[in-house]
């Protein structure tokens, strides 16, 4: 099962992320949890979220990039749901062996990420990647759609098809998504 943890502060104003979701939402065994729809008051149901994660072979974190980072409700989800004794620490092995995919959209192009002492887009994956690995997950090559400020419908459609191809590759594998699968 593929679980998409989706965080868009204004889901109904989204173009890129809605396009990606539309491209995969009819796939079997895909569950989308739109955090800003579920928890407009930021009061996350930790037990419900943990149950959803436990059902999943692949956990996808999908969101638009905001100030080079995650939307606040996704960060809160990570802080609240990945509890000690469940996600890590003594007997905290709920995420062990699951796969993790970061699916992100950005308004800017590659040059937008050349600022600061540690330029490059890959650096932005580091906090989520380290979190996933710390919790025993297999980190997959991320899926990024850049340039959403200017890209046209054709580019967005192609991105949706690629996203669908990546998730379908997971669904077609009986044992989930082993890291050696080529998602490139
Ligand atoms: C508060 C805020 C901060 C943003 N920060 C960034 C950023 O740091 N880098 C970037 O490339 N785009 C940034 N964006 C643009 C969004 O990432 C972009 O609009 C989004 O990926 C498009 O997806 P959507 O059509 O689903 O909304 C920001 C947007 C908002 C609202």
Automatic annotation (TrEMBL):
Residues 2-167 form the Flavodoxin-like fold domain. Its cofactor is FMN. It is found in: Cell inner membrane. The keyword Flavoprotein applies. FMN binds at residues 8, 14-17, 105-108. GO terms for molecular function: electron transfer activity; FMN binding; NADH dehydrogenase (quinone) (non-electrogenic) activity; NADPH dehydrogenase (quinone) activity. It comes from the Bacteria. Its main location: membrane. It catalyses: a quinone + NADPH + H(+) = a quinol + NADP(+); a quinone + NADH + H(+) = a quinol + NAD(+). Regulatory subunit of a potassium efflux system that confers protection against electrophiles. Required for full activity of KefC. Shows redox enzymatic activity, but this enzymatic activity is not required for activation of KefC. This is Glutathione-regulated potassium-efflux system ancillary protein KefF.
């Amino acid at each position: 099962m593929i679980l998409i943890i989706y965080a868009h502060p204004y889901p109904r104003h989204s173009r890129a992320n809605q396009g990606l979701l539309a491209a995969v939402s009819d796939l079997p065994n895909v569950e989308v949890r739109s955090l800003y729809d579920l928890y407009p008051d930021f009061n996350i149901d930790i037990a419900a979220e943990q149950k959803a994660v436990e059902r999943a072979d692949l956990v996808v974190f999908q969101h638009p990039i905001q100030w080079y980072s995650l939307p606040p409700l996704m960060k809160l989800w990570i802080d609240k749901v990945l509890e000690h004794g469940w996600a890590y620490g003594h007997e905290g092995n709920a995420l062990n062996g699951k796969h993790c995919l970061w699916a992100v959209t950005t308004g800017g192009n590659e040059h937008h990420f050349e600022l600061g002492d540690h330029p490059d887009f890959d650096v932005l994956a580091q906090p989520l990647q380290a979190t996933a690995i710390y919790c025993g997950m297999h980190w997959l090559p991320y899926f990024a759609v850049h340039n959403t400020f200017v890209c046209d419908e054709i580019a967005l459609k192609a991105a949706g098809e690629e996203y669908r191809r990546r998730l379908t590759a997971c669904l077609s594998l009986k044992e989930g998504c082993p890291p050696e699968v080529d998602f490139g």
